């Protein structure tokens, strides 16, 4: 009778791997479920996240700009440091502003100095003019008083038989020139000669002086009235003085030039 040999059949390793027995099977099933869950989570995460090319900065919180003051405020114990840094920054900025201001002041156009010099000269000239005018007026007050008065004695041949010279007084009375003559010093025979009216600022303070010289060659002293750099000549004639005629002007001008007046 034939005999059959019984051979033990062993399952392939692939089958054992995919078909565990007992606790191993449950553990593998648990691992599979967790793997499936992880894969599902990864897949969902990948599906939720937008592609980088289509995302804007507003969609991502990390890309949003946060001011430095807010960042410092969120850090505990950083407020004092922020104040110190702010004070340092303000002092540095103030120093920079001061330096920039000094540099801007240093860069001045040359015409500024020229204009400043001209203004200073103008102010100095005005001050000198005022001082000079005041000094002149004070000196004239000492010499001629107010109203301006000038007196002189001269021998002109008018009632001078007693040997007393004639006395002359030249007045600037409110800008009007008046000359008073006392022939031979006698006030009872006084004569008054009216001169021109003066115009201009402070015309009443202009001094009027008298000089005597022979300007027409008749050997008699003629009277020359001087004021404001001008001259008026009165000719000595017939015991008194008269204004010069136009025909006598060339001879008078030559005589005045010779006398240096």
What does this structure look like?
- With 261 residues, the protein is α+β, with helices and mostly antiparallel strands.
- Among the domains are: 87-144; 146-259, Lipocalin (Beta Barrel), CATH 2.40.128.
- The chain contains six helices and eight strands; from the N terminus they run αααααββββββββα.
- It has helices at 13-18, 23-48, 68-74, 79-106, 110-144, 249-259; strands at residues 148-154, 166-173, 176-182, 191-197, 209-213, 222-227, 230-237, 240-243.
- A four-stranded antiparallel beta sheet has the order 1-2-3-4. The protein has a four-stranded antiparallel beta sheet with strand order 5-6-7-8, with no helix packed on it.
- A hairpin with an 8-residue loop joins strand 3 (176-182) and strand 4.
- The longest helix has 35 residues, at 110-144.
- The mean pLDDT is 78.
